[in-house]
């Protein structure tokens, strides 16, 4: 390999690749040898051999146990110089398409060979951390992962992965001091030869480790052989992408594991979790966790189904043409669908109580702030203030209870809870609207909130003639978004994109005209 000369090749006018390996080898102290480059012409491509050509092998460094450290260090230093030269001079922009297609996988193999050395050196940290002789723990490192992360400037996640893969593909030492073979010899061979990357190797190691103690060793080794061939490719098939390797591993494990999928399900149930993080300065709450397969699939289907626009037969072509594009990102749409689901959940009659009351959130606001355009309130347990617009939306769906305090904070009177729309009123509005009244929105009625068209603080009445169904996303933006609502004669009308005039909303999708009799 000739790093300074772009693998010793250059493009002639006809796209032919010519190698000058002898001169390059003499300059760099490498073996000379026969010309191993293929002739590449536009439209014709023959892959380079997987075996490293002789002229690309190191010379003058014969390692033995007595000199292996000095020899290996010399190889590393020379390799760094050669690779630095390669990066600086072997720019791919000037290559023909055929040459580029030939070089790209070879450069990847080069990186994998470096990765092989990375993981074996990382795994050695596990042996050295608590060693009674020449321990790296004496240097102040608390763990092997900590040492690798600090010394290589990678994340602890990546350090742990390197240690895990390296431990599976490196030679070991028995309790008696005798050398032992790698735990997974086929994976080890593929990694050392640069045929399999660390990402794929890590998947194989983790998944095979999970079943190694309960499956037949012969079956485990056969699965390892087949999976390595799939991950690294063969003469008859190219290597699989990493995500496909993961699928194949699961299929093989199901075939050889006598317990089937049950152990994995048990492990998954133990790891299930949902975490709510610390509130940000903007009032956002980070969400993270791990959902079981069925819960995650249900949530995904739910979010996908209701965050994509759906056409209904009762919307004619003219109406469909006037439906404005949804300017929300997919992530924002999924958030709003989740908000609809949660809003519906707190209205369920049999919903569990929290401290003796509904799990619906509580907002505290003064009478003066509620009357002000710029007033704010506070959601119980949250530090970020919320605007009057948000408070009104919450009053629409959750009601209001008046508490009178004196200047010292003593409670003087407690009014009865006022639900802005009763269950009977909501059922009537659902029968009339059938779902969110904004054109093009398909959120079902059960997920919608009832909105005061004339705001409650502006004297709007809690009456069916002043209430319409809105999904969380449109309810949240109704005052600042493009849509406007009115209720002439108790019938919802909208005005907005594609509807410059006040237009009555479509009737409930469940409503059908009754047949005439007589």
UniProtKB/TrEMBL annotation:
One Pfam assignment: HNH_2
Q: Where is this region: Disordered?
A: 1-46, 492-518
The record, for CDD domains, names: HNHc
The UniProt regions of compositional bias labelled Basic and acidic residues, in chain numbering, are: 1-26
Name the keywords, alphabetized: Endonuclease, Hydrolase, Nuclease
Occurrences of domain HNH nuclease (ranges): 424-476
Q: Which spans does this entry mark as compositional bias, Basic residues?
A: 509-518
Q: Which GO terms describe its molecular function?
A: endonuclease activity
What Gene3D superfamilies does the record point to? 1.10.30.50
Protein name as catalogued? HNH endonuclease
User: What is the native source organism of this protein?
Assistant: Labedella phragmitis
């Amino acid at each position: 390999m000739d790093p300074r000369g772009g693998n010793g090749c250059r493009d002639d006018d006809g796209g032919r690749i010519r190698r000058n390996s002898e001169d390059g080898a003499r300059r760099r102290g490498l073996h000379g040898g026969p010309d191993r480059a293929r002739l590449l012409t536009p439209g014709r491509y023959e892959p380079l051999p997987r075996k490293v050509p002789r002229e690309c092998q190191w010379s003058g460094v014969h390692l033995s146990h007595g000199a292996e450290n000095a020899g290996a260090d010399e190889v590393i230093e020379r390799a760094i110089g050669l690779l630095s030269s390669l990066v600086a001079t072997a720019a791919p922009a000037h290559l023909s398409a055929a040459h580029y297609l030939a070089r790209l996988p070879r450069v990847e193999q080069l990186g994998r060979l470096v990765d092989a050395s990375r993981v074996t050196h990382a795994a050695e940290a596990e042996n050295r951390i608590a060693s009674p002789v020449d321990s790296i723990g004496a240097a102040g490192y608390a763990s092997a992962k900590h040492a690798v992360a600090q010394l290589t400037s990678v994340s602890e996640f990546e350090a742990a992965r390197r240690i895990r893969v390296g431990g599976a593909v490196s030679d070991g030492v028995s309790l008696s001091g005798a050398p032992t073979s790698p735990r997974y010899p086929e994976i080890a061979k593929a990694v050392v030869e640069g045929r399999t990357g660390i990402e794929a190797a890590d998947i194989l190691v983790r998944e095979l480790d999970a079943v190694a103690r309960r499956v037949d060793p012969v079956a485990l080794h056969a699965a390892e052989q087949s999976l390595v061939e799939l991950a690294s490719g063969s003469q008859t098939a190219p290597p699989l992408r990493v995500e496909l390797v993961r699928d194949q591993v699961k299929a093989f494990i199901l075939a050889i594991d006598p317990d089937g999928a049950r152990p994995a399900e048990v492990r998954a149930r133990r790891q299930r979790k949902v975490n709510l993080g610390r509130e940000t300065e903007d009032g956002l709450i980070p969400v993270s966790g791990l959902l079981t397969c069925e819960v995650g699939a249900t949530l995904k289907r739910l979010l996908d189904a209701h965050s994509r626009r759906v056409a209904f037969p009762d919307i004619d072509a003219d109406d469909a043409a006037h439906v404005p594009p949804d300017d929300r990102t997919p992530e924002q749409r999924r958030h709003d669908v989740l908000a609809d689901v949660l809003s519906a959940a707190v209205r369920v009659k049999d919903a569990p109580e929290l401290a003796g009351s509904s799990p619906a959130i509580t907002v505290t606001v003064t009478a003066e702030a509620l009357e002000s355009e710029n007033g704010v309130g506070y959601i119980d347990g949250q530090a970020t203030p919320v605007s009057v617009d948000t408070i009104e939306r919450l009053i629409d769906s959750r009601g209001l209870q008046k508490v009178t305090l004196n200047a010292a904070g003593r409670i003087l009177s407690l009014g009865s809870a006022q639900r802005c729309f009763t269950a009977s009123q909501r059922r009537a509005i659902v029968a009339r609207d059938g779902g969110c009244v904004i054109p093009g929105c398909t959120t079902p009625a059960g997920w919608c909130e009832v909105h005061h068209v004339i705001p409650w603080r502006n004297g709007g009445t809690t009456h069916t003639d002043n209430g319409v169904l809105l999904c969380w996303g449109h309810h949240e933006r109704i005052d600042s978004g493009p849509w406007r609502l009115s209720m002439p004669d108790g019938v919802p009308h909208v005005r907005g994109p594609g509807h410059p005039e006040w237009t009555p909303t479509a009737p409930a999708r469940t409503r059908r005209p009754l047949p005439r009799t007589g």
